[in-house]
Each structure stands twice: as C-alpha cells, then as structure tokens.
Inverse folding.
C-alpha cells in the first residue's frame, strides 16, 4: 500500500521536472490556434507525442531496442524545420487560414489524429523529450508493474492538466492580447531555438555542422516555396 501511495507523488514529480518547458511551448501553440490549426490538434498532438515517449521508455525498460541519445537529439531538426517554414512562409500561412476554414470545419475528429497539424505538435513533443526518456527509463525499471501503471496514469492525467492550464493562460486578456499581437513574430524563433538547444545539448551535431544544416534547410524551404508559387501561377 505504501508503494501505491508513493507512486502518485513520484509520477507528479517526474512529470513536472521533465515538462516545465512544455508549459511555454503549449502556451505559444494555443495562442496560434485558428481555422487551420485547431485546439484539438494541439491536445491530440501532445498526447500522441507524450505516449510515444512513454512507449520508447517502456521499450528500454523491457529490454527492447534503445536509440542512442545522439540519435534522439537529431529530432531537434523537426522544430527547426517547422520554425524555418513558418518564418519563411509567414504571409502564405496567414492568408490560407480563411480559405481552409470551411474545409477544416468538416474534418472528422478521427482524421485529426492523423492531421499534419497534430503530427507537427507530436513531433515537437518528441523532439523535446530526450530528457523524458532519460528519466523515465530508470524510473520504470525500478517500479513494480502496479506502480508503473499508476505512474503512467498520473502522467496521462497531467498531460490534460498541462493543456488545460496553458489554454486558460491564453484566455487571460493581457496574455492573449500580447500573444496575439506578437506571437506570430517570435513563435518561429522559439521553435528554432528549441531545436538548436536539443541538438547541441545532446551533442548530436557540432555548432558548425548545425549551422550548415540550417543554411541547407533554409535553401531547401525557399526552393520548395518558389516551386509552389510557380505551380500556382500556371
């Protein structure tokens, strides 16, 4: 019984310690919600990403395939790509919101699980979760099966709490006005900074290699953008 009681605060402590930075990221994401990027995409994506991290930790606990930390760190390229794309295609993203509103309103809830928006949020969650795996693996390894189930249940409940709290923050007039006014300007830089931190912290790439990679990604995104513009003009 004592083990069951200690499993709850253990789960709360482990989740809080590894997800404090998600409060900032989720607040920024909720502030960007519009016709093309719904709140349900954020919640679904956060759950998909977090469940992936838990499953990866369980695989290590069960002795399955474990990815090296520097491989996990390469997932930091995902928020960098998303940030660069939003930075370089800001006008196009803003103008497409109204055009897609009617089409998105008829999208089923099931389709939201597989939507690019939800997958993007999931990718950011996973990319920012290398520390989660590093902490959850030993935590799970030292837990009995019933303690493990309680800890995972606590984790899943707290994901919902995190989403609710950050959504409520964006409902505060002062915060909402600030994020609405300036959110679009600094969200890409937050995503890029997050990716850079993840990659450098995990030593996946050297600063020079990371810089070269970002330059190449910028050029690639610009080429894709130019190709789309030419195709639409024909």
């Amino acid at each position: 019984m004592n083990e069951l009681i200690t499993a709850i605060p253990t789960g709360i402590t482990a989740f809080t310690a590894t997800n404090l930075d998600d409060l900032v990221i989720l607040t920024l994401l909720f502030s960007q919600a519009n016709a093309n990027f719904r709140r349900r995409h954020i919640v679904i994506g956060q759950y998909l990403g977090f469940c992936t991290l838990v499953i990866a930790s369980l695989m290590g606990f069960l002795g399955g395939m474990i990815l090296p930390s520097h491989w996990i760190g390469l997932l930091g390229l995902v928020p960098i790509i998303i940030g660069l794309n939003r930075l370089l295609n800001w006008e196009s993203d803003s103008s497409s919101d109204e055009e897609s509103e009617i089409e998105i309103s008829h999208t089923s809830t099931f389709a939201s699980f597989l939507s690019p928006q939800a997958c993007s949020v999931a990718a950011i969650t996973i990319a920012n979760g290398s520390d989660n795996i590093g902490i959850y693996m030993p935590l799970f390894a030292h837990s009995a099966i019933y303690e493990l189930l309680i800890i995972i249940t606590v984790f899943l409940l707290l994901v919902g709490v995190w989403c609710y709290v950050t959504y409520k923050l964006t409902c505060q007039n002062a915060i909402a006005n600030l994020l609405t006014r300036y959110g679009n300007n600094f969200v890409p830089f937050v995503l890029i900074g997050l990716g850079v931190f993840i990659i450098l912290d995990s030593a996946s790439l050297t600063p020079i290699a990371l810089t070269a990679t970002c330059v190449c990604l910028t050029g690639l995104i610009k080429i894709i953008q130019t190709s789309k513009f030419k195709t639409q003009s024909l």
Summary: The chain has a mean pLDDT of 76.
